[in-house]
Here is the input.
Amino acid sequence: MKRYGRITGWGKSVPQRILTNHDLEQMVDTTDEWIVTRTGIRERRIAGAGETTSSMAVESCRQAMERAGVGPEEIDLIIVATSSPDYFCPPVSSMVEDQLGTIKAGAFTLVAGCTGFVYALVTASQFIETGLYDKVLVVGVEKLSPAVDWTDRNTCVLFGDGGAAVLMEASDQPTGLLSCELGSNGRDWDALIAPGYGTAKPFSEEVLRNRDHFLRMDGRRVFKFATRKMTDSVINVVQASGLSWDDIDLVIPHQANARIIELAVRRLGIEEDKVMVNVDRYGNTSAASIPLALCDALEQGRLQSGSHVVLVGFGAGLTWAAAVLHWQPERGIEGPILVENWPLLSNLFQPVTRVRNAVWSTQVNARARLQDLAMAAMTPINQWQRRTRDQ
Here is the structure.
């Protein structure tokens, strides 16, 4: 009998402290208008004393388990997606497991940058579908503020702290992950980097003097990569899911920059009410970004049982990930299904769906080419304007 992974619980945890753009005006040479125009961010959460990656993960997991009505003794596995663990060693996932009291659970940490949560969600689904585990906690959590150079206005305005988690359970009823795509473009590994961590450049006085322990980002490379991969991967997973674009109820992108999201929205031809955006309130929380947006979308009633949602992200590596989910958190009557292919009658409608998706894909690619040409034409003008202002 085929098994499926259904999300039955979710929860989030964000620090109490809110750092607004007006606060940043007092710290670096920037303005609220400059930040909002270029990023869409108005405020972000910054962890204080006692607020750690593990504590945010634990609180998120407890909410998810409570919502699903599942006790800690029932959890089989914990996957924590993060690039900012409490310690280099031990893995933060083991700390989370201990604090939750999940006595039989395995636990590991997954590092894939901002795409980590989708990578972890796909991994959890595979564990369930193979029959190895029945209940898996998937966490996306980051405490990025210690890695931010608060004297660099180009990066310090972007990042925030937070965490969110979902509980995925085994089900005999068709639901959950319909399709996915995981990718990596390692040629641009240094486009987003904290050079002073790890074994290649261990922490030292020189690292401290050169401020290499802080995050650095090549914004142009990341922007170009993100806008291309977001549109391509959304097309790929929708087509692979057997659904048409009209069947998608909500798109939840990685909340890195409102300009990136807006450009992807125009290329895909999405109605604004079909896209979840909360970057204005949290900034870029890396692996926590998509699950935080998922929790907020649920709080706002933007997902109902039976909805189809696309999750899509990009991040350090450079990596990308996308997935299509059938959303059905409530438990149905478990038992054998009468058809092997799902959704019902999908074989009859697949030829029509493929044609519709082919037309949609062609339209998206045409819009993308036009936008790329427009941006290329504007680049010399923007450079001239910047030189003029600097003079």
